[in-house]
């Protein structure tokens, strides 16, 4: 009988699934489990929420992920609801059971973000319609408030301003709780260059401006009227469309419910830093990677791409009864690319701060959509 290897979460987890499906011995089959009924591309999500037609790039089906007749399986629209030592419980049924036994499993559960960084719906059709509605709402909005001065907030104002230049009169305010843009240990000059770019594009930047949204304000939707939001210095911002870009939270409630000791105090799954194997002995058959794990380095897709081959090497070695593989995870180089629409922006590679040309070529122009489509074979 064939044994199961599970990958739970089909964003960064899909890279592991693709590589494992090509290398697992015939004694094992891979089951990729994803709660959404589609694959989602967060990196292009902001442009998809602003520019009509672009939303199609954020979604992919799993129909061609494995070859027809492959022994490997994608269970999409299926949530893992409980983690056992050597089986998981799922929301649906697979082979007439709601539990799936496994030899080894990889947790790639990711993070939760406000829309549009993650979709509002678990159905592709609703997800697409939500983004189309957001495009219409942004078009209709007179004044847009983006809360958060990190890369997602900056990138979002860039998408809106590129589609609706200064001459359209659409007001855009970026409010951040700190005193600089792109905080978090990146070079000060990166934030300063982005400040200059945003100011030249007519973006009103409010520093040290933590915004407490009243409960009745729905983010990512056109508000019925212009609302006034108070700032800590006594100032006010008027807006009829608000987007939160204050970062993600690890999506690890599934682990917390039965294995709280497997999490660190930030809610990340604790892993051995070179093998990415979960440290909690009750979850000894699990690996964890990406935004849900405390693997060294930033939570980025770029890091996930470096982690996937490590998990694959170790799972393959275990499936072949070889024990440990020699491949070790090393923290990737610091890379931050912050486009402002397709052709402007700034970024940092290692110690070097880059301008528009490199930023556009490195990310802004394509937002890695061709790589996304290639991974899911669409
Ligand atoms: C706007 C934006 C722009 C970005 N730009 C960049 C960039 O340019 N470069 C870069 O490197 N990174 C970028 N990132 C970060 C990058 O998107 C994340 O680091 C990456 O998506 C992490 O991948 P992941 O697989 O760990 O998590 P996620 O992408 O969050 O995927 C987790 C998956 O697991 C599924 N899942 C969760 N729980 C369950 C369950 N119980 N059962 C089944 N399935 C489940 C979810 O539905 C989801 O599909 C950006 C992020 C955003 C929001």
UniProtKB/TrEMBL annotation:
Belongs to the FAD-dependent oxidoreductase family. One of its GO terms (cellular component) is cytoplasm. It comes from the Eukaryota. Residues 4-301 form the FAD/NAD(P)-binding domain. GO terms for molecular function: electron-transferring-flavoprotein dehydrogenase activity; flavin adenine dinucleotide binding. Keywords: FAD, Flavoprotein, Oxidoreductase. InterPro entries: FAD/NAD-bd_sf, FAD/NAD-binding_dom. Pfam families: Pyr_redox_2. This is FAD/NAD(P)-binding domain-containing protein. The keyword Mitochondrion does not apply.
